[in-house]
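Key result, reporting period 2: structure in, sequence out.
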């Protein structure tokens, strides 16, 4: 096994995949797609941090703010079967790993607010009511890119939703540290995709899905404050 043979194998398969070439695409459910919290908007107007473009959770913003993610693993469930002379492991199901993503935090805490709004649609922390899964789940597409930013491999997390927001540390010693938030997602299962199917899934996942009446209702609530 010479170095020339290794270079030939790598070359004919398009080169080595790089960990920093990836794209994460998803659109949050309608409950967290629009940031129409009246008190939040009034507060941002008061401290001159309000930006009308921040009212909509743009999938492109999410993709750029995602600093790291994972292509999940999968393990088989097995039962021990006692054969005549030895114990055998018999597969009877599978488990997909949860996926953890780390997002950069901007000064409007956009990603944290969006994920918290999403989680509130799963379990209402005010009324202790659980939501319907069909209302809070969404598909998440994770793509591995090559040096030309072309998709070479992808996976789709079916019916994903956040289950954990990690604590955010504050410290006087972290003078030049950028704030980040880490979120863990659960999902039904993941589906491997090739270049074509992953590109189609990414386009579909980036299309917002919300009802216009909910927008007008939110705008009426905002106007009533002025």
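The corresponding designed sequence is given below.
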């Amino acid at each position: 096994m010479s170095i020339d043979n290794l270079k030939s194998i790598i070359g004919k398969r398009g080169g080595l995949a790089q960990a920093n070439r990836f794209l994460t695409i998803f659109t949050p459910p309608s409950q967290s797609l629009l940031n129409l919290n009246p008190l939040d908007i009034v507060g941002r107007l008061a401290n001159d941090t309000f930006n009308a473009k921040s009212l909509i959770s743009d999938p492109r913003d999410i993709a750029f703010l995602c600093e790291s993610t994972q292509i999940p693993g999968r393990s088989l469930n097995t039962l021990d079967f006692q054969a005549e002379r030895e114990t055998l492991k018999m597969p009877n199901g599978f488990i997909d790993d949860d996926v953890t993503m780390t997002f950069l935090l901007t000064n409007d805490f956009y990603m944290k607010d969006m994920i918290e709004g999403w989680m509130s649609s799963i379990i209402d922390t005010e009324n202790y009511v659980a939501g319907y899964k069909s209302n809070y789940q969404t598909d998440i597409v994770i793509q591995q890119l090559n040096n030309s930013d072309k998709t070479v491999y992808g996976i789709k997390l079916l019916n994903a939703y956040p289950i954990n927001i990690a604590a955010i540390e504050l410290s006087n010693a972290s003078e030049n540290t950028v704030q980040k938030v880490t979120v863990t997602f659960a999902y039904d299962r993941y589906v491997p995709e090739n270049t074509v199917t992953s590109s189609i899934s990414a386009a579909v996942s980036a299309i917002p899905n919300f009802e216009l009446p909910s927008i007008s209702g939110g705008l009426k609530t905002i106007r009533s404050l002025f």
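Helices lie at 3-12, 30-33, 38-46, 59-65, 110-122, 133-136, 195-205, 212-223. The radius of gyration is 22 Å. This case is discussed further under Risks and Mitigation.
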